[in-house]
Amino acid sequence: MPKISAATVPEHRAQQRAALIRAAVDLLAEQGVTAVTPAAVTARAGLARPSFYQYFPSSAALLAAIVEDAFTAADVAVAQALDAATEPRARIDAFVRAEL
User: Fold this and answer.
1) What would the pLDDT profile of 21-66 be if each residue is shown by its tens digit?
2) Which of 28, 77, 84, 86 has its CA 20 to 30 A from that of 35?
3) Angle at Cα 26 formed by Cα 59 and Cα 94, nearest 5°?
4) How many CB atoms sit inside 10 A of residue 20's CB?
């Protein structure tokens, strides 16, 4: 039985999934999309290769998760920037800065 590295199984699974995504992002930035393979990602994350398939059915699914996470983070950043600005000109400036 694998060791659980969190207080609960759902927390452990979330940590493992996040580790795979971080490893894939690092590989993507360093070597490009072709480097994002199950073997390379799990090796970078320090997990056994079969673990990959517990979280993602393919490299393409992992890349899709990375894109989804990036868009979610960008949406949050824009919303926070716009919440802090009240005047129209300041809101436009906040939006442009958050998008860039």
Assistant:
1) 999 999 999 999 999 999 999 999 999 999 999 999 999 999 999 9
2) 77
3) 105
4) 24
82 within some domain:
yes
Name the pLDDT band for 3 (thresholds 50, 70, 90). confident
Split into its structural domains, the chain has a count of: 1
Print the domain residue range for 65: 9-99
| CATH at residue 42 | 1.10.357.10
3-state secondary structure 36-70: CCHHHHHHHHCCCHHHHHHHCCCHHHHHHHHHHHH
55 in a structural domain:
yes
Do 20 and 54 touch, CB atoms closer than 8 A?
no
Global pTM reads 0.78
> Taking Cα atoms as reference points, which of 9, 6, 43 lies closest to residue 23?
43
Helix (H, G, I), strand (E, B) or coil at 85: coil
Report yes or no on 4 lying in a domain. no
